[in-house]
Design brief:
449 residues, alpha/beta, TIM Barrel, Lyase, Ornithine Decarboxylase, Chain A, domain 1, 33% helix, 22% strand, binds pyridoxal-5'-phosphate
């Protein structure tokens, strides 16, 4: 279970505290709860350490790279998982180089050189990355590199009521941009290629997807990965670490899982309801994974992971202000001042928990309150934060709407399309400490002459 302690800010913050933070720092505003984040990291590490003799956890920077959060994760013993050169530079300022893993689809020559010199593990995703490292070694710019291979078992990891969604998802998994497929020998070929390069090659990496809520499907997808590692070892390639990536789902929000069948039903006026997600049971998952690792004779492997959402999602909330409401014949819009610019994953049809506040008090929800579409401030129709949301009938301009689970893929994925990026205030029992200041016009236009 996710360490959803009483400290989760969505339930723990009282209306007056939210109101005063919004007055002081403006909206839209993220509120970060460092104690909640640290609790969830500690519980996670404890679970992993009790399941595996050797284990490491790398904090996924792409999920949230706020320095305040990274510092807390590293202080508790986490390394860093970075997916770009700029994330790598940030991580080098935050933690020891040997605790950094460099993933991602693009690794420039100068970034590969820096990573190799610093002793950062590089997970190879393109053959060209290996060729670049070999050229750097021939030119005596580097002596060695610590390498891993990213593979793709191509297995589905999501379940849904709509079979058309499952089929589309399974096809996508098989032909994903990331990793080398196990099926047709491509992963094997790449492993032999890396091994023959003479660089140090000790890791197999297999991040599967994000917001996976079924431990059963997650484990089933890892099964061929374990077989692959066992085969490599049997053929003399001494893999020491298996990094299973992140992707562990959180219970605080639900993602829509609909395919063409749901779309067809919708045109006929029917709605196919999503099956509620399971709560990812981390203790059961790690115990089952440890058993399977044992069955494959891989007990001496270091089992590592790169959790993002699971550790961070609940530790932030987003506070927005209602700009206005519009009642149309078939729809009632609530327009708020934060949208896909700062909550981009809402585009996956995510359903978050909501609170509605006025003058430091809660606006209660009633069963007969209207069904609304909550739209953001961006100038395109798709800027929908949540569809079919029940909203208090009395909600009015100026009221606050608080959204749960705003800690993952928000600050790190924000854009300044139409709007400036939002601020983050850390809870401190008082007025809040600004840990990420609001973007200014000068920040944006500093790129021009
Ligand atoms: C390589 C890698 N590691 C870790 C993560 C973190 O995933 P999540 O936030 O779902 O745990 C991602 C995100 O997709 C990723 O691409």
């Amino acid at each position: 279970m996710l360490a959803l302690t009483a400290r989760e800010p969505f339930t723990d913050l009282d209306a007056r505290e939210i109101q005063s933070l919004a007055e002081r720092h403006g909206t839209p505003l993220f509120i970060y709860d460092d104690a909640c984040f640290r609790d969830s990291v500690s519980a996670f590490l404890k679970t992993w350490q009790s399941a595996f003799a050797q284990t490491k956890a790398y904090l996924s920077y792409k999920t949230n790279y706020m320095p305040a959060l990274c510092r807390s994760g590293h202080a508790l013993g986490m390394g860093a998982d970075v997916v770009s050169g700029f994330e790598m530079e940030h991580a080098l300022r935050m933690c020891a180089a040997r605790d950094i893993v460099f993933n991602g689809p693009l690794k420039r020559a100068e970034e590969l050189e820096r990573a190799a010199r610093e002793g950062i593990t590089v997970n190879i995703d393109l053959e060209e990355e290996l060729e670049t490292l070999e050229a750097l070694r021939s030119n005596r710019r580097i002596a060695d590199a610590r390498l891993g291979l990213r593979i793709n078992p191509g297995q589905p990891v999501f379940d849904a009521a709509d079979r058309s969604f499952i089929e589309a998802h399974a096809a996508k998994q098989r032909s994903a941009k990331f990793g080398w497929p196990l099926d047709d020998g491509l992963a094997r070929h790449m492993a032999e290629r890396i091994s023959a390069s003479g660089f140090s090659f000790e890791t197999v990496h297999a991040h599967l997807n994000s917001q996976i809520t079924s431990p059963k499907l997650h484990l089933a997808a890892l099964e061929p990965v374990l077989g692959f590692v066992a085969d490599l070892r049997a053929s003399g390639i001494e893999i020491k670490e298996l990094n299973i990536g992140g992707g562990f789902g959180v219970p605080g929000m639900q993602r829509s899982k609909r395919g063409w069948w749901s779309a067809l039903k919708a045109t006929m006026g029917e709605r196919l309801e999503d099956v509620p997600d399971e709560t990812f049971d981390m203790a059961a998952f790690t115990r089952a994974l440890a058993r399977r690792i044992s069955e494959h004779g891989l007990d001496d492997l270091c089992i590592s992971c790169e959790p993002g959402r699971y550790l961070m999602s609940a530790s932030m909330v987003l506070v927005t202000r209602v700009a206005g409401l519009k009642t149309l014949p078939g729809k009632r819009w609530v327009v708020i001042d934060g949208g896909l610019n700062i909550l981009p994953t809402a585009a996956f049809g995510e359903r978050r928990r909501l609170r509605f506040l006025r003058a430091g008090g809660e606006l209660p929800l009633r069963d007969d309150d209207p069904d609304c579409t909550i739209g953001g401030p961006l100038c395109f129709e798709g800027d929908v934060v949540m569809d079919h949301a029940r909203v208090p009938a009395s909600l009015a301009a100026g009221d606050l709407v608080v959204l749960s689970d705003a800690g993952a893929y928000t600050v790190s994925r924000s854009t300044n399309f139409n709007q400036l990026r939002a601020a983050v205030a850390q809870r401190d029992g008082g007025d809040g400490t600004l840990v990420w200041r609001r973007e200014t016009y000068d920040d944006v236009f500093s790129f021009s002459d």
